[in-house]
Every structure is written in structure tokens, then in C-alpha cells.
Amino acid sequence: MRTNIVLDDALVEEAMVLSGAKTKKEVISNALREFVITRKRLNLLDLDGKIDFSESYDHKSLREGR
Questions:
Q1: pLDDT of 25-40, one tens digit each?
Q2: pLDDT tens track for 3-21
Q3: What is the phi-psi region of residue 53: left when phi exceeds 0, alpha when psi lies from -120 to 50, beta otherwise?
Q4: CA-to-CA distance for 41 and 6, rounded, in angstroms?
Q5: Whole-structure pTM over 0.70, yes or no?
Q6: 20 — alpha (psi -120 to 50), left (phi > 0) or beta?
Q7: What are the helix (H) ranges across 20-58?
């Protein structure tokens, strides 16, 4: 998707240095990706205490097959 926006040049430069991104497009894509991942994690935290697992549930045994 092509979009024209005005960005804070200093902020973009700092993000490029911190991320190692070589282009503005790359740094913006990385920032959006991280934003989405962070928001999804926050949504999972909203479930804390709302799910009751069975007493016999063993999450470690599910990892053995990997």
C-alpha cells in the first residue's frame, strides 16, 4: 500500500540506527510489525485468570514431541 505521511526525521533516523534498517520503508515495516505483535501479547494478558485449566493438564508433556 502506498501512503504519503510526514514523519519526524530525527525519530526515523534513531529507529534506523537502533534497528539496523537500511531504508525508511524497512524501519516503518519493522515498527508496524512490532506494534502488532505487542498489541497481540497485551490481548493475551487480558485472558489472565479467565481460563481454568484441568488439574491434570501438563504443558511440559506437550513439548516432548518437538
A1: 999 999 999 999 988 8
A2: 999 999 999 999 999 999 9
A3: beta
A4: 29
A5: no
A6: left
A7: 24-45
Count how many residues are written for the chain. Answer: 66
Q: Where are the domains of the chain?
A: 23-51
Give the C-alpha separation, 35 to 38, whole Å: 5
Check: CB of residue 27 under 8 Å from CB of residue 16: yes
* Number of other residues whose CB lies within 10 A of the CB of residue 27: 22
**Which residue has cell 537502533?**
18
Give the angle 7-11-13 at the CA atoms, nearest 5°.
100
